[in-house]
C-alpha cells in the first residue's frame, strides 16, 4: 500500500486528479470506478479544470459508479446520479451512454443488480476504482457485517450511515433506508484502487482500515489484500498512523 499524506486539501486534490489524468492520458479508454460523498469533490473539481484546459479527455472512457440510493429518481437533488452530473460527468466530454450507475428505482432491484454486474463483466475489470471511506469502515455502501457480498446487491443502510448522509437531504427522515452497491468482490478486482480520506473524524477508522485486522467488521480493511492501493490522506485523517 502506498500511503501519501498531504498538508493541504489543494495538494491532495491535485495529486488525486493527477493520478486519474495520467491514467486517461496513457489509456484514453480506461474504465473508471467513481465514488460520491464529500471526499472526492475537490478531486472532481480539479479534473474538470484540467479538462477545461484541454489537458485530459474523457471521450473514450467508461464510468461505473459504486452505488445509488433505492427510491430516488435520477433527477432527485440527493441522488448519486445528480451528484455525478453536477460534480464531474455533466461537466466533461464523456458521452452519457458511457456513464453507468445502478438504478435505485428499478421495479426489480435484484434484476437491476444482475444487469449492473453483467455490464461490469463486459468490461472485465475496472482500471481505477476511486473510494471514500465511511466512518464505520464502509466502502461504497458495503456496510460492516458478518459476511460481505462480492457482486452488486441491495443493502440496508446502518443508522449511523443514514445520519452521516443526512446533510445532503432537507430532513433526516428523507435519507433512504436502502441502497444498491457494487460488492467488495468487484471493488477488489480493480487494477488499482485510489482511497481518499479527509478529516480528523476519520483518523480512527483510517488506522483500523489500514493497520488493523482484516475483517468484514471493517470492509475497508480488505483493501490490505489488494496489490495496488494508493491512499491519499490529509494530515488530520492520517493523524493516528
Ligand atoms: C457514502 C458513500 C461512500 C462514501 C462515504 C463517505 O455513504 N456511499 O461511497 O465514500 O459515504 O462519505 P464522505 O466522503 O461524504 O465522508
From TrEMBL:
Enzyme Commission number(s) of this protein: 3.5.99.6
Keyword Hydrolase: yes
UniProt xrefs under Gene3D superfamilies: 3.40.50.1360
Record-linked PROSITE patterns: GLC_GALNAC_ISOMERASE
Domain Glucosamine/galactosamine-6-phosphate isomerase: residue ranges: 17-226
Molecular-function annotations in GO: glucosamine-6-phosphate deaminase activity
Pathways involved: Amino-sugar metabolism; N-acetylneuraminate degradation; D-fructose 6-phosphate from N-acetylneuraminate: step 5/5
Pfam families: Glucosamine_iso
Catalytic center residues: 67, 136, 138, 143
Keywords (A to Z) from UniProt: Carbohydrate metabolism, Hydrolase
Presence of keyword Iron-sulfur: no
Reactions catalysed, as given in the entry: alpha-D-glucosamine 6-phosphate + H2O = beta-D-fructose 6-phosphate + NH4(+)
NCBIfam families (UniProt xref): nagB
Similarity section: Belongs to the glucosamine/galactosamine-6-phosphate isomerase family. NagB subfamily.
Role played: Catalyzes the reversible isomerization-deamination of glucosamine 6-phosphate (GlcN6P) to form fructose 6-phosphate (Fru6P) and ammonium ion.
Protein name: Glucosamine-6-phosphate deaminase
Gene symbol of the encoding locus: nagB
